[in-house]
Amino acid sequence: MDDRQGRVPYEYIRNIFQETDPKSMAMLTGNEYDEHNNTFTLKIINKNYKVEYPSGDIYNENGEKISSYIIKIMILRYLVNGKGVYKTGKDITFKDIKGGHVYYKNFYDRTILRLANIYGNNLIKFENDFEDIECEKTNTGDLAYRFEFLKNVFFTFIIWEGDEEFNPSANILFDSNIEYYFNAEDLAVVVDIAISFIKNKGNLPIDLGMYK
How far apart are CA 203 and CA 168, in angstroms? Predict the structure, then answer.
């Protein structure tokens, strides 16, 4: 399933990537591009990834080639779609994004509910998983962190702890510049990857599946 559902959109975005000027992509996302080696350097939270141009091949900081379609698609869409808009400092919800109401059920099930299930009864783990990440604690919920996932792409993860009366809950906010990098349909997958990244302290499987 992962191969069939991932390969087609990957090949589509890779073709666009190969036809797009690399220096323009670097400038519009704020990332480094080495013209001598034809390689982008991207940071996902606190890990460096290399993207070769024009092949679109991606390597983690251990030099391992990424085979995961969802990671490759996410990175190439980010590079292709970036519009050079810096953070605004204004947070919005998923429903504030164009198309957010249409995709909200999928987004909620895949990200908000998952975040609540992982951390809603374990704020200590939530705090520990963010201890080595450059982030800002915000005064929202019982515990919340705002962090830069990719250059100029900011998420806020919010947790309300469960108790005898209420189930744990969560929310996810975005800097209002988010639509200049990802659309609503992409974000369910992108934030899902971000949750996996933080939960595993940056140790993403190189073959991470679309549905884990």
Answer: 26
Give the pLDDT confidence score for residue 211 in this predicted structure. Answer: 47
Q: Which tokens go with 152? A: 């100029």
The two structure tokens encoding residue 71: 């990671």
74 & 99 share domain: no
Q: What is the DSSP letter of 131?
A: T
What is the total count of domains within the chain?
Answer: 2
Domain that holds residue 70: 2-81
Amino acid sitting at position 207: D
What are the tens digits of pLDDT across the range 59-117?
999 999 999 999 999 999 999 999 999 999 999 999 999 999 999 999 999 999 999 99
Tokens (6 digits) for 178: 């988010």
Is the preceding peptide bond at 54 cis, omega within 30 degrees of 0?
Answer: yes
Strand partners, 92: 174
Phi-psi region of 206 (alpha: psi -120 to 50; beta: other; left: phi over 0): alpha
Q: What integer best gives the mean pLDDT of the chain?
A: 94
Residues 38 and 137 in one domain: no
For residues 2, 13, 54, 50, the Cα torsion angle rounded to the nearest 10 degrees is: -60
Assess if residue 204 is contained within a domain: no
Residues of the chain with pLDDT > 70: what percent? 97
User: What is the predicted pLDDT for the residue at 201?
Assistant: 87
